[in-house]
Every structure is written in structure tokens, then in C-alpha cells.
Amino acid sequence: MQQITDLAAYYSLTPSQYGKTVFHCSECGREHRIPINIVQSGQNLISSLPEIIDLLLPNQTYNIGIIYDRHIEAKINALFFSPFDQLAISYTRFPLGEHGLLLEASTEIGDEAADGMPANIDFLIGVGSGVICDLTKWIATKCHLPFLLMGTAASMNAYTSITGTMTKDKVKSTHWLETAQGVLMDATLLASAPHTMTCAGIGDLLARQVANADWKLSNLIRGTYFCPVPFEMMSRFQDAYLPAIPKIRAGDLDAMQKLSDAILVSGYSMTILDGETSPSSGSEHILSHFFDFQHEVFGKPKNLHGEQVGIGTIIMSTAFEILSETDPATIDVDEIQRRRLSLSDIQAETDRIFRGYSKVFDQVVSKKRIPDEDFPSYISHIIQSWESLWKGLQPYLMPAEKIKDAMTVSGGFTKLSEIQRTPEDALQALLYGSWYRSRYTILDLFWELGLFPEFAPVILERSGVLG
Questions:
Q1: Range of 171's domain?
Q2: Residue 162 pLDDT
Q3: What CA–CA distance (Å, rounded) separates 219 from 212?
């Protein structure tokens, strides 16, 4: 592992150079490790796989298992297996899912694949995007196998993350999993993906602007850990891909590589925190996870993760703007205390709406809740610190209009109707999302300040997502 102590030197690294590094952080005092051996972003990378595998498994014979989504098998055959077969590497295919059905990153599918993995397989390659990425991590962790990820779409940022988001019993949760030995992002493959997937990736990256503000908010209000390095290490990569969005939309390979570089570094921003996802996942991801929950429980349509996150980012950046304009002198602590929902009130509400899933909400609410006897002083401190609070958040925020413009230029979704959600669905996500996920965000603060439920429709209206 390369040891780095200079902050400027760390920020200057390329995505490939970040692999196998340890940064001794002068900002937070922790060590930030990236254990991935080989990371490459470029073109025609499939031809380099023999050399890469030899580097990862030196002086070994190996039996490779290749994991991919059966639903897009024809495309994987043309784009990956056709050139891969010319390399004369023996392998076994492990397609997951079914033709005609969207694959889900569920623990059931992952466990079944892991249980059926032959004993002679000693290395895995996951060829796909978000779902295959998470499933490959899950299977490799269960089977104690090294693995490599070959991204086929710039649709999300988890390739270089050491976590995976898995669904179990219709509820999504984040798991700390084994790290990939290598990650390859081939611009040729990425450019061939449906453009909706590329737009989803841009939406996932823009979440940084809300996620880090939420993370800093938690630090300032709840005293949780925070480090500015994950945000700052992404800055120059964001500055590179945002102006290139028109060329990305046109399929330009150099522009696509700028996007893939940003996606790789965005994943690193979580890995350097031992899998803590706060630099890339805040209240905007809570909305997306809640939309997924609505799909699982109420049969609402399913969307790409980044499509939902992009709209969630527009909504929640608007929420930050609205709250920043609130005059703290208008906040009446006694009135907030009087109106505050009790735990039994919340439990009755979640049981009424979510029935068999209410325990998930109740556990989260109980964990985050400030005791009644401490609540008045807690709110008073927030009010007294209002100016310094927003001064601390400002470096991490981007105007909602600028985020919406980037999504519009990319061709991505900016309206709830485009992800097949109604205003009522979005209101439910805003109001109950903070009761569903344990991370402290601005959604919690709206409740604590007595501004929910009244402010939720105001946020949606001003965000412009209702059209």
C-alpha cells in the first residue's frame, strides 16, 4: 500500500492511482484506505483482462466464473463475451435472473447463487451495472472468492465502494462486503448502454451536493463524525464531467471517460471511510429508497436507482434552500414541544399506513429520537446556532436550479411523472422517509422544528418536480 500524507498530493491522484493507497488524513486524523488492486478507466479494456488476472492471481491456474444478468444476455454476448472468447480464457457462465424480468439485488437471489457456486471456481468477474455489482459483491463475500467488476453502464457509483445495497423481505439495507480486486470501466461499453442509464449515473453523482450537506448537518447538530476529504477529492472530477454532459449525451468516448472517472472516485469517497456511505447518500437517497419501498409494498412502478436519486436531489436541494430562508425567530420551542408526536402516535401512524412493515419504522424512530426531557434544550441550541449552522453547510450545497439544469441537459428525468410517482407518493416519501432510514438528515430537522407536515407540499411545489 502506498502511504500518502500530503493532502494536495492525494487530491491530485488519478482514479487508477488511488488504488492500493493509505492516506493519513490531516483533516480528521483517520487513515483512509483504498484496498482495490487495479482500477482502469479507458477504452477496449477487455483485451487487457489476461494480464490483469495474472497480476491479481500470480503464478496460479484459475477457474473463472462470470456473473451477468440473463435479461440482457444478448447484449452481454455481443459486447463482452464475443471479444472475451478471443482471449482463450476458460470460464463458466453464471447468469442470474430470467429473460424478460428485471433482476433484483436481493439476498435471496444472492444466497441461491452463492450456495450453487461450484467448488472449483476460484475467481469471479461481475459483468454489468448496479444490480450485478451488488450481487457479485454479495456472492463473492459469501463464497470467500476474489472478484473483479467490469462496468457496463455509468449508471451508479458503487463499483469502487466496499458496500452493497441488498433487498431482503422487501426492505433495502446497506451491507459491508468484500472489496473488488479490480474494477474496469470501459468507455466503449459504457457508451453503448441505454442513455437512461447514463443519466441515472449523473443523477447518482449529483447526490453529492445534498449528501455531504446532510452529513455535515448531522455533524453540527448531532456531533457525528465528518471529514471534508471525500467531498473535496471529487471536486475536480465533477468540474470535468459537468461541462462535458452534452458530449456525454452524444456518446463521445472521451467525455464518457470523464464521467466514468467521476463514478470511480465517487465510489472511493465511501471506501476511504470503511464503507460509510454518507459522502454519497443522504436525504435524496432516502427518497429513492422509499420509492423502492413503495414498489415492493404497494406495487408502484420500479425505476433505475439514479433516476430516482436525481429527482430526489432536486427535491432535497430545494428543501435546504427553503429551510435556509426560515427565520429562526419564528420558531416557537414551546409550540414545537406541544405538537411533537409521541412514539405511540408515530407507531399508530406507521401501523395504519404500512401495516406489517411498521416495526421497521418504529425501530428507526426510537433510535434517532431525542428524549422529551432533552428536547427543548436541543431545539434551543439549534436556533441559537442557526447562523453558524448555515455557514458550515454552505460549501457543500449547490442551487437546486443548477442541479435541475444538469439533469435537463443530460436528458435525465426532472419530474415525478417520469418516474411514475404521484405528488402523494412523493409527500409520503418526504414525511416518512426519515422514519424509514436511520441516517440523520434534513428530513429529521424539518420534523424536529415542527415544519412537517406543512412544509412538505411547499418543497415539492417549489422544486418544480410536479409538472
A1: 39-193+227-271
A2: 85
A3: 10
Which amino acid would we find at residue 371? P
How far out from the chain centre does Cα 318 lie?
19
Mean pLDDT of the chain: 93
Helix ranges, 299-441 (H)? 305-324, 333-339, 343-354, 358-368, 375-384, 386-393, 400-410, 423-436
Q: What is the pTM of this model?
A: 0.90
Task: Note whether 316 and 176 are same-domain residues.
Answer: no
Q: Mind giving me the DSSP string for 177-225?
A: -PPPSEEEEEHHHHHHS-HHHHHHHHHHHHTHHHHHHHHHHHHHHH---
412 and 373 in one domain?
yes
Residue 126 three-state SS: strand
Q: How many domains does the chain have?
A: 2
Question: Do 237 and 348 share a structural domain?
Answer: no
Residue 25 lies in a domain: no
- Among residues of the chain, what percentage have pLDDT more than 70? 100
Q: Based on the domain organization, do 235 and 304 belong to the same domain? A: no
Each residue of 359-389: pLDDT tens digit?
889 889 999 999 999 999 999 999 999 999 9
Angstrom distance (rounded) from CA 394 to CA 381: 19
Q: 318-327, pLDDT tens digit by residue? A: 999 999 999 9
Residues 353 and 260 in one domain: no
**What is the reported pLDDT for 60?**
76
